[in-house]
Design goal:
The complex is a heterodimer of chains A (295) and B (81). Helix content of chain A is 58%, strand content 2%. Chain A is built from twelve helices and two strands; from the N terminus they run H-H-E-E-H-H-H-H-H-H-H-H-H-H. Chain B is 58% helix and 0% strand. The chains are: A mainly alpha (295), B mainly alpha (81).
Chain lengths: 295, 81
């Protein structure tokens, strides 16, 4: 799975919205869309211990990304269902499309980003239950190792490199984190939600809410890396090679050629962008166009 | 730091975020349970709220003691009755 990347990619999306989507995509919805897949599945992947007994998935990778399991949480069909229901229930509201577009962008980014680990995601579910993966690093959630081994493995592998790449992308687009951008782009695209928050929080806190995801991403990258390599470094040697690290058993659910995975992922991203564009464009129609033609 | 349109970031905001990050990372390395998507953002909000409150107190000065109504001593009230 990806760790800090899922925080940084929300800002990368916000910073690189096409001009025609400016002020029409909710950043809060991007975050919710990006967090939803793991919010659904990850708790049971790691499980918990109670009275000496462990409760959780017996085969974490199968539950997290496979079928049968909760692998549908990382498939685009769930994102489309949520968006369709959302648009149906809120179609008369002015903020409806901004949230729908933001959600599907964040959700799609998460599903595609997670093809990097050795288990991947069911990008074409329910049409196919194959897991699309390019195996950049080893999936490391295990019953015995839990979250700590998973973190140590991720931050000993190309997963750390992935997080740093996304961080560099955001740093190169640093204006996305400024007060000016927040006021003129983020709040302007989603005035009702920020007004609601603004009735409860001061402006410095509103800005902190906006920057909180970035803050959490940076802190978790640093904290886990320091823990894995300075505090417990002898247990977690670096594995900066494809499919690393070596101190975890590499698991996978399918074996598809890398070229097929990349073509499918690119197609999925294109579909997500097309759908987001249609959602945004649907809100641009003038009132006259909506009236039935005179007989 | 002033952006193109003149939106000034509050003075010291970078320091506040740096303190929040350093404290969160420092504690998080040893108490890894706090490294989650709920505690992380809440930690930042708490530090920003605290810093903002301290800055406002520093700018406005110590609060004046509230004026209390003059209550005559007990003996005077008994004598009046």
């Amino acid at each position: 799975m990806s760790w800090g990347a899922h925080q940084f990619e929300t800002y990368a999306i916000q910073a690189h919205l096409p001009k025609r989507w400016q002020l029409k995509v909710s950043y809060l919805a991007i975050v919710i869309g990006d967090q939803l897949p793991d919010f659904i599945a990850k708790f049971w992947v790691y499980g918990f211990n109670l009275n000496g007994r462990h409760y959780g998935a017996k085969v974490p990778q199968q539950f997290h990304r496979g079928w049968p399991g909760a692998g549908w949480s990382h498939s685009l069909v769930l994102g489309f269902i949520v968006v369709a229901l959302w648009l149906w229930r809120t179609k008369d509201r002015p903020w409806s499309r901004a949230w729908a577009a933001g959600f599907i962008l964040g959700f799609g980014a998460h599903c595609v980003t997670d093809i990097n680990d050795s288990v991947g995601t069911m990008l074409l579910f329910p049409f196919s239950t194959a897991n699309f993966s390019i195996g950049t690093w080893a999936y490391a959630a295990t019953v015995k190792g839990g979250k700590y081994l998973d973190a140590a493995a991720y931050y000993s592998s190309f997963g750390l490199v992935m997080d740093l790449i996304w961080l560099v992308i955001v740093v190169c687009s640093w204006r996305v984190l400024t007060r000016h951008h927040w006021r003129t782009r983020v709040v302007a695209a989603d005035p009702r939600a920020w007004a609601w928050l603004g009735r409860r929080l001061s402006e410095p806190l509103l800005l902190a809410v906006y920057r909180a995801t970035f803050f959490y991403g940076v802190c978790r990258v640093v904290a886990w890396t320091v823990w894995a390599h300075l505090i417990t470094g002898d247990q977690h040697p670096w594995g900066l090679h494809w499919g690393g690290p070596d101190f975890v058993t590499r698991v996978h659910l399918s074996s598809l050629p890398v070229w097929l995975v990349l073509v499918t992922a690119a197609s999925v991203l294109a579909l997500v962008c097309y759908v987001a564009d249609r959602i945004v464009a649907g809100g641009e129609r003038q009132p006259a166009e909506l009236e039935p033609a005179a007989p | 730091m002033e952006n193109a349109r003149g939106d000034r970031e509050p003075k010291g905001h970078l320091l506040v975020y740096a303190v929040a990050a350093a404290s969160y990372i420092g504690v998080g390395i040893f108490e890894k349970a706090i490294l989650n998507w709920v505690t992380g953002p809440l930690w930042l909000l708490a530090v920003v709220a605290l810093a903002h409150r301290l800055m406002r107190r520093k700018v406005s000065g110590p609060a004046e003691p509230a004026a209390t109504p003059q209550v005559p001593p007990l003996d005077a009230r008994r004598d009046a009755a």
